[in-house]
Amino acid sequence: MITIRKATFEDKYKIQEVINNTDFAQFCPANLTEHTLVVELENTIVGCGNLDIIEDLALIKFVYIIPKYRNQGLGDGLVRALINYADRRNVKKIYIICDNKSEYFKRFGFKYVAATKCDRKLYESHSRNIKDQFIMELDVDEFFNSCHCH
For residue 16, what pLDDT is reported? Predict the structure, then answer.
């Protein structure tokens, strides 16, 4: 059975194990936020995702599925769960900031935007300079009123 749920304090070391060999290795178990979701398959954590929520904005920090569990729709389910989670917290826009262009998130309705078009709160909350990054934005209301939601 597949379950996507909010991470608990007890999950933090398993999450660290899952992402230990990724670019997200900077994740520190002590910094597990309330906005982390995990994907469980038969009671084993096989993926996770994390959001920062700043008032009515959210930033997807990472989405990761262990390679041997990919191509089964688990990543899509996790992204949709993160969007739904953000919506329930009155988030209006969700952003992704990455070093390289990725077409993956377009299937959910994310669009590339110029750094100058981003909300000021995103600049203020992000620790690195985002002007040279690829930034994608999703309007949450548009997501739920489009074919990307289904």
Answer: 84
